[in-house]
Amino acid sequence: MTSTTTQPANLQPLIAELTGLEIITDSTQITKLSQDYYTFSPILQPLLSDKRGALVVRPMSEAEVIQVAAACVKYKLPLTVRGAGTGNYGQCVPLQGGVILDLSRMQAVKWVKPGLACVEPGVKLAALDKQTRSSGWEVRMLPSTYRTATIGGFIGGGSGGIGSITYGQIRDRGNLLAVRVVTMEDTPRVIELRGDDVYKVAHAYGTNGIITELEIPLAPAYAWAEAIVAFPDFMTAARFGQAFSDSDGIIKKLVCICADPIPTYFAAFRNVIPAGSHCALVMVAESALEPFAELVKAYNGTVCLQKSAQEASKGTTLVEYSWNHTTLHARSVDPSLTYLQTIFPLDKEMKLVEHMYQHFGDEVMMHLEFIRIGGAAVPAALQIVRYTTPERLADIIHYHEANGAFIANPHTYVLEDGGMKTVDLEQLRFKEMVDPYGLLNPGKMRGWEERAENL
């Protein structure tokens, strides 16, 4: 179905090639579907606010994806792949216009087996989790946007989330088993990648292939209780988070530590968390609540909220106050706030965490999410920053890096400048093969842009 909005003449041949597909040409809808949550960053806002696609196509099948790819190659139009648009760095914002390929209608769960699932990219993570739990399995890791985020978007633009305390990050071998990818060649092909080859397209922002199917591992499903634990000082809360994360016998899914005043931004819990407290938001297996209570006692924490798994499954869940949702709630109170993404080095004494907490005070509010890296639990931080100027933000980032913390910069839309800091040659070589004209999400892969300049 095609809307009746008039399009520039040069799009009419493309639209004719896509007869029978769902095409959106309404300018308001196109604007909405050309954006994500890059607004978290005051650096990205002026760079991306005026970027728009020319039209949106919503395929229902891999065959329709191939049809769109062939048409875009024929007319040399940029194509930007989109899931639910819950990313934070402009991953799906079209820098050079063209076609937005919205894969949110490809929602088939092809099959679920013990420990495995095969899905289309538009499947919402919450819906998949609900379906797999009926057979005793669950999705290994989820973003805080799991209610609306799609599996394809998470693999293409995310890195970890709730569950990463046990299973690490998407990039860890075994967390993505296979993908089917449509190419942007003169005659588009479908390529299946398995094993380590999947990382040619994982976390590549859709710059080097259109993912149409994914095979992912599942985890045994547990009944997850939720709790908020309050502490009178931040470092006790942080050390509790480290100890809890290190407690191999206590089954857990979320270990989130928020320094005061972050809990004051959580409207739903203002009457629950004592004023001036620092808190831990956790998900722990119901079967492990007794040893969990002993650990809380050892750190003189106070459980100010606890929900059974059944209670936690209804209404507000702590998931939506963790990870990027922590920043979302803070910004809903004060839109001038922004954030960082930091991985602190492994240090059981947490000396660098304590130094940064003392050094910056409330200018950089400490928010830790414990994740597993190389077999050890380490604090990753999504600190909330009181933004003043670009120069001051750059100084804060530099100070962290100079002192040994790794910053995955959330204030750039360039793939390599965010986390990797270097060109991934495997991803670049794959792009050269499957997208020879550089039409997929142009402007996001520095390796390709530098290559093009040198030709």
From TrEMBL:
Q: Sorted alphabetically, which PROSITE patterns does this protein's record hold?
A: FAD_PCMH
According to its UniProt record, what is one Pfam family this protein matches?
Answer: FAD_binding_4
Which SUPFAM superfamilies does the record match to this protein? FAD-binding/transporter-associated domain-like, FAD-linked oxidases, C-terminal domain
Gene3D superfamilies per UniProt: 3.30.465.10
Could you mention a single GO BP entry for this protein? lactate catabolic process
* Keywords assigned: FAD, Flavoprotein
Q: Give an example GO molecular function.
A: D-lactate dehydrogenase (NAD+) activity
The residues covered by the FAD-binding PCMH-type domain are: 49-221
- What's the name of the protein? FAD-linked oxidase
